[in-house]
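Supplementary Methods. Inverse-folding protocol.

Structures were first reduced to a discrete structure-token string of length 276. This string, shown here, constituted the complete conditioning input.
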């Protein structure tokens, strides 16, 4: 937005459009869910509902369904607004299974530069990141891991976590973004043999999930803790307890797939007498 346009909005000589208002709220990290509908025109309702639904689907891990909704949002009224265009770009790349890693990295970096024109990875912890930008960087780190660049991905995650207090996100969005970020980092550290650090971030992820009532990752986090203790050669009773909790919490939230995987992994370690 041009500074002159913003000044006119502040002075009341120009009305603020819905998507400009939403962009400002996104940047400020403000929660608008309770009163955004007051500003909607009827023709804009479907677009905003699609935007919120895609965010919800991403939050609960339904990436295929989120991707299917992109066309509805991408062709609507807000498609030319920068923060929506950025949102559509990262969802498209994040949920794509066919895009090459090189094309994905290029697209993600271009999308980040829509809002951070002089983006520099080395300064990441100093930025005041928005929801879109954090999700873009998570997608970037995921692609780097798939390309075998785990060290670079670890640095990205650590920088985002270090600067999390500076983030321009709502409490709802922090509850969506931080647990998977911490969980992904703990996985990378575990694979790198940095087990104590992996445990620390797993426990942070678990506390964050509980704080924000986001139970979807809890079974996998508990399983990860069990794996760390096993690799650290702790007594069986220690990691066995976490496997049991992980297994039963998976079925408690209806994540049968996670329950099956947790049981299979535990049984490979000789734990067979605790699952029913």
């Amino acid at each position: 937005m041009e500074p002159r346009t913003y000044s006119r909005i502040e002075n009341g000589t120009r009305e603020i459009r819905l998507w400009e208002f939403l962009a400002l709220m996104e940047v400020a990290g403000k929660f608008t869910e309770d009163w955004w509908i007051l500003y909607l025109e009827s023709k804009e309702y479907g677009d905003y509902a699609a935007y919120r639904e895609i965010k919800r689907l991403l939050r609960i891990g339904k990436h295929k369904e989120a991707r299917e909704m992109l066309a509805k949002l991408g062709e609507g009224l807000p498609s030319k607004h920068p923060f929506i265009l950025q949102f559509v770009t990262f969802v498209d790349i994040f949920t794509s299974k066919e895009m090459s890693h090189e094309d994905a990295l290029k697209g993600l970096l271009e999308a980040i530069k829509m809002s951070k024109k002089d983006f520099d990875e080395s300064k990441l912890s100093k930025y005041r990141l928005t929801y879109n930008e954090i999700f873009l960087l998570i997608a970037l780190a995921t692609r780097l891991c798939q390309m075998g660049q785990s060290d670079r991905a670890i640095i990205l995650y650590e920088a985002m976590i270090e600067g999390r207090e500076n983030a321009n996100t709502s409490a709802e969005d922090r509850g969506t973004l931080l647990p998977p970020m911490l969980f992904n980092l703990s996985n990378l550290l575990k694979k790198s043999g940095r087990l104590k650090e992996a445990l620390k971030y797993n426990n942070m992820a678990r506390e964050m999930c509980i704080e924000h009532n986001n139970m979807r990752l809890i079974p996998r986090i508990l399983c990860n803790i069990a794996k760390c203790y096993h690799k650290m050669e702790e007594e069986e009773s220690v990691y066995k307890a976490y496997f049991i909790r992980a297994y039963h919490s998976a079925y408690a939230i209806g994540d049968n797939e996670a329950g099956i995987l947790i049981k299979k992994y535990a049984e490979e370690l000789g734990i067979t007498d605790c699952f029913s």
